[in-house]
Predict the 3D structure of the following.
Amino acid sequence: MSTDINKYNDSQFAQTTNDDEIDLRELFAVIWQGKWLIIAITAVFAIGAVIYAINLPNIYKSEALLAPASEEQSGGLSALAGRFGGLASMAGINLGGGGGVDKTKMAIEVMKSRQFTSQFIQRHQILPDLMAIDKWNMSDNSIIYDDKLYNLTTNTWVREVNAPFKPEPSMQEAYKEFNKVISVNSAKDTGMVTVSVEHLSPVIAQQWVTWLIEDINRVMKERDVDEANRSSQFLNKQIALTNVADIRSILYKLIEEQAKTIMFAEVRDEYVFKTIDPALISEEKFKPKRAFISIIGTMLGVMLALIFVFIRYFARKK
């Protein structure tokens, strides 16, 4: 009985194996029969991918490596944090006791904010270079704008849009477009910050990175100076209202620290970020990866061609 079962199982296994071999042979036969169709579809996709890749404009990337500089100015204030933190908080002063937001993280978020971006675009008048550029000529470093969007002769926007949009892009549109080309990242292990910009022109990309670093240092410095001035005014008013010697002594120390903050800000341009590796004008394109696009297009053509051939074969077979 056992021998019969074993023979039955062997025969079933042999039949299954034979069926698998037949299926593979059938599949190879289908591929061979449709080889010219597969070649044709693959060729169309390959040529299309190559043409598409060739027509893509070169994008250049410029980046700078920055180191946080905010820790160096916190020594004096941190020394007073434990002693006068409560009184200082009444004046709206942050003594750096560790409970507030890290200044480097705040600066990064400010750079990504709508307000900073809008002010940056308007301050440097880069809206045409952001929204209307068509191509960059390497030979003479000139910019060609899309005449359907922007008239360089009259410096006016001529794009056709539907309401509520206007010919001149709004700051909301500009913010969305700017976010596509800018990148601000902080390394978790080292704390270093990388600021990069991608653009058709490597010169513009390098200039924008430089401006971004200068502007964020200036904005953060102005914020701290303004806060220190307002805090000093408050403390001076409190001094005038009290006759207690100890409290007046504490208030004078707080005013002294605010004066140090203002002095530190005024004598230093790199207030929040120190430039470790400045942005350079890139000599090589960052993207597109034309060879990669061509390979992916060809592979996609092969897969779609095989799927089409198999579907057609099995549809006819039924």
